[in-house]
Amino acid sequence: MALLLLGAPVIVVAQSFQLPDYTSFTLENGLVVNLMEQHDVPVIGLTAILPAGAIYDAEKAGLAALTADALKLGTKNYSKTQLDEALDFVGASVYTSARKEYASLNAKFAAKDKDEVLNIIKDILIYPTFDASAFDTEKNRALVAIEQQKESPRRIIDSYFDVLLYGDHVYGNIPQGTAATVGALNASDAEEFYKNNYSPNGASLNIVGDFSSMEMKTMISNLFSAWKKSSNQNENLASKPLSIPTVSNVLLVNKEDAKETTFYIGALGVGRNNPDFVDISIINTLFGGRFTSMLNDELRVNSGLTYGARSRFESLKYGGSFAISTFTANETTEAALDKALEVLNALHSKGLDEKSLTSAKNYVKGQFPPRYETVMDLSGLLGDMFWYDLDKTYINTFEKKVDELDLKKANEIIETYFPKDTLQIVLIGKASEIKEIAEKYGNLNQIEINSYPKE
Question: Boundaries of each Peptidase M16 C-terminal domain copy (predicted)?
């Protein structure tokens, strides 16, 4: 970019995005705390990461998610109504949830209200009561949501794909659960899950915003030192080896009233701290990660087979998945599947050219800094860095790594990480119209929309 100053051109070079400074300390109970001061706006963002995800659900799928939701149903010092009213009064937002590997609490509040809100967060994390009546109400909401998901294949196909791809590995656990597993849960189950999995050792508290780190360290130490360290050491179930499929498999999920087919084509992917993660992201951006991607051009723009097609790498701590995703009318199911596979094969057979690679690199660099603009973005980043064992170099060398990717390395990345055979495919659609098509692509297993292979 050039600026004119008194007739002379001045070249301004954009500065690379760098991770702002932050401090870290660990309480005696094992809780890791990261503090990052940001004084632009009088707001604080907080992300708590806890080792209490769906990988610990065992035979009670959905329990991790319900336990996380139940944290806000009342505590030792606040009823649910009191919690809601106290947070509403100061305009604070506090949300709890559980993903596949971990549970989290995310909060955003005014800096002036930090004393009150942090006290509430302490109660939510340390002293939940799991009232039976409130839990049953929350469970019924979850059951309604499970039923509603069946009407939207794009919301539920992830779970079917994970079950097919990961098999008996805990990464195949279904975070939201099923009607049968969730329906059998009660408040005692949630309380037991909390006791076994919610502990400060293995957890992290990440706080970003308008505060003094010294003052915040004292406050957090006083509030959370009472959280008792767990003496139980959960088995690291997620670290167990993943089974690599040796044949192509197709899971056909019958939705009798479907007018279109929603499908995933994929394979095992990579863990989040894979050394080639940035390079993989760049190439996936070009292949299926943006509107002008190869997949979207071929399936939407050039052929009109769908309104959109994408690809993504979902990376977890010890592994992950790759998937092409789209949807199409029943009568164009075969054409869309073939076209998606054609684009994947072309990625391998033709590789990339310098112009397309440069375009993807510029796009990725342009999208990177806006991902970390707010206090919540930054607290979430610190949480990710904690969970996936990432250090500052992930951020501080990101643009350098992007610039260093050349055509030779890019084509090696394609060959190494982008699948081309033994693909795993999930289709949700009207089986009577697409079953014969599905049989073309691998060993077929057909189930109904209200069931899973694990059930």
Answer: 185-362
Phi, psi at 313, each rounded to 5°: -105, 120
For 53, 131, 405, the CA distances from 19, given in Å and listed in that order, are 28, 42, 22
Mean pLDDT of 412-428: 97
- Domain range summary for the chain, segments of one domain joined by +: 24-230, 244-448
Domains 24-230 and 244-448 share a fold: yes
What is the biggest distance separating any 2 CA atoms in the chain, rounded to whole angstroms? 76
Phi first, then psi, for residue 165 (nearest 5°) are -75, -45
Residues 55 and 48 sit within 8 Å (Cβ to Cβ): no
What CA–CA distance (Å, rounded) separates 46 from 203?
13
Average of per-residue pLDDT across 56-82: 94
Cα dihedral value 387, 212, 19, 47, nearest 10: 30
Q: Are the C-beta atoms of 162 and 171 separated by less than 8 Å?
A: yes
Q: Are 389 and 266 in contact (CB under 8 A)?
A: no
Q: What is the DSSP letter of 74?
A: B
Which residues, in sequence order, are CB contacts of 214 under 8 Å at separation 6+? none
pLDDT tens track for 168-185: 999 999 999 999 999 999
268-318, pLDDT tens digit by residue?
999 999 999 999 999 999 999 999 999 999 999 999 999 999 999 999 999
pTM: 0.91
Provide the CA 42 distance to its chain's centre, in angstroms: 28
Kindly indicate whether the domain formed by 244-448 is annotated with CATH number 3.30.830.10: yes
Q: In 10 A of CB 446, how many CB atoms?
A: 14
